[in-house]
Amino acid sequence: MPLSFVKAGFVRVVAINGGRGLREKLYRMGIIEGDVVRVISNAFPGPILLQKGGIRIGIGAGMASKIIVQTLGGDGI
Amino acid sequence: MMKAASLKNNVTSSKKTAVVALAGNPNVGKTSVFNALTGSRQHTGNWPGVTVEKKEGIFTMEGIEVKVVDLPGIYGLSAYSLDERIARDFLMHEKPDVVVVVIDSSNLERNLYLALELLEMNQNVVIDLNMIDLAEKQGIIIDTELLSKLLNIPVVKTVAVKNEGIEKLKKVIVEAAASSKKATDIKYPSDIEKHVQALKERIEELHHLSDVSARWLAIKLIEQDAHVLSLMKAKLEESFSELNTFLMDIVSNLEKEKCDETSVIITQARYSIVHSIAKRTVKKKRTFQDKISLTDKLDKIFTNRAFGIPIFLLMMWVTFQITFSIGGALADLIDTSFAALSEYISSLLEKLGASGLLISFISDGIIGGVGSVLVFLPNIFLLFLAIAILEDSGYMARAAFVMDRLMSSIGLSGKSFIPMILGFGCNVPAIMATRTIEPEKDRVITVLVNPLISCSARLPIYTLFATAFFPKNQGLVIFSIYLIGIVLAIVMAKLFSVLLFKREVSPLIMELPPYRLPSMRNALSEATRRSLIFLRKAGTLIFTAVILLWVLASFPSSASYASEESFAGMLGKLIAPIFKPAGFGFWQAGVALLFGTMAKEVVVGTFGALYGGESLTQVLKNVFTPLSAYSFMIFSLIYLPCIATIAAIKREIGWKWTLVALAYLPFLAWLSATLIYQIGSLIIK
Q1: Which ipTM did the prediction report?
Q2: Shortest CB distance from A47 goes to which of B300, B304, B404?
Q3: Extended beta strands in B276-315, E state
């Protein structure tokens, strides 16, 4: 499901359905297909806060809707 | 620490020098490494052609003087933002002897990406595993020997904030600078590597670009990097088309094979190299599941969809309350001392037999004018202190995050919000801070509306009027002015994005630093630095403005000081009618606003000089009503940016947009002030 629907918890990034700009920016921030990231908060339709390996990344709602993830459960905290 | 004497020695004897660049992602403690390396021997300037700050420092080791250049914090070398372009241009053209990649040891994988790009560029790289103590605390163990062997470059562990490992780092830098040993190429998977090799050989045949690594150029060309493409086109001229045909073949082949764009293919390939290196060198004792940091808990609250914005507003409100309740008390103290000084000096001058003109010049002009501005030093110091604390604690990035939703509804992203908050301090650095904003459209709009964010130089105006007219609700009244500024900025941004640009989306993607206890020392030194700028301004620009004003107010000699018949009075009377509908159509207000374009504090300084000698709050009560005072504050908020801000706008986005700003602001100011005064008059009656 799109990342924008995830309330909180761990997810695995399945696909990034964006153009070159979006994907490259995510890669450079360390978000890549196959990665497990934690959703800390989701202020939909506001931005989403992700955490991976101690790095926190804020992603706008529009961008988040293009990131397809698989939920792995767990709490955001 | 090197003594000054030995530095001189170095200069006179035949000295050896080296240049080292510090590169790294944002938030890896690069500044701490820079400070630890160079101590107090640093200075700041600007990068050529742009207003981005360039920090340089030196250290001496084994008789070699090493110049350290701090590059902007970057994620890669794709030149998406101005910061990345600056870093890349420096590395390409200045060719430092050594590049130290500062790495946050807790996040080796992502940080290695930049190191890999630098190695591709054939830079002489040294890896600095910084904040190693925090990583070890999290159970992360890095096999530095293996990492060093895999990349064939030196790796040093440091904790820069505690000065640990810095001597070792210096030693390694000096050694690396002396040796010409270059790292081995890091090979891509063979299906990509064969293309890189083929293109590299073609480039080498051309001989035109012998100063840049051919391998790096080949990789960047396959990535279809716009910057490198245009550079090659310019350098090769006719022979470019031949190379380009060859290149396009590779690109279309690769894209067909992998069903993706080459830039993505290369980035992914680079990532998988980084991933395999990290996998071999990093051992984690614990899994990701059980790591719950305080930052995450705080973020649950501060970035909450319901509480995020109210918490932000509360933070701002508390900031202003502190600025005014503590600052106000201190300001009173300065005010009374200046009044006493003015009296003392004029009586002293009288005894010495000075002329009335000289006495007036010193007590009314200089002490009255400059003094009335200096009174606000405590407010300004406290406001900058608060901003520094908010920034240092990591909260500022959260403010940008929670405001993203609102910002995206006006066509911008949350990133544009940080320059807005910085604007509360001073619009000049705020406008410069827009360089991290990626779509050019966002950058232009953010710069255009920034003057609506009320800077600290306008604070003296509000404080003066609020003290005189709203003594019981000072904090609230001033807060409302700031809020109106924000609302207008939002409305204007929306208008600009609809009228001047196509409705493009600007997605947010930003890193949020971990929260930390703000360092009082850092915050105090930042606030002191800013206050000194304010003091210097009071001593130069404001001083000059006040003298000019005093001259205009004193002459022609037939007119009495600051009367309607003086030059200042005539000038003021000329423009005063414009302000009549807004409720302050008298000449002193006109003159004050006119001079205020030099620096906003001058508005207060002008009133100080024009009504010299008397208590300013008392005099103002005779000419303003609370309503017209409020309308005047609003007008001062909006009407025109100061000269320094206009210059900053021009530097960042060019003349065309500067003219747009200079056209819409006075109009908006007049409209808002008039509406407030006219509607207010109806309600009060």
Answers
A1: 0.90
A2: B404
A3: 282-284
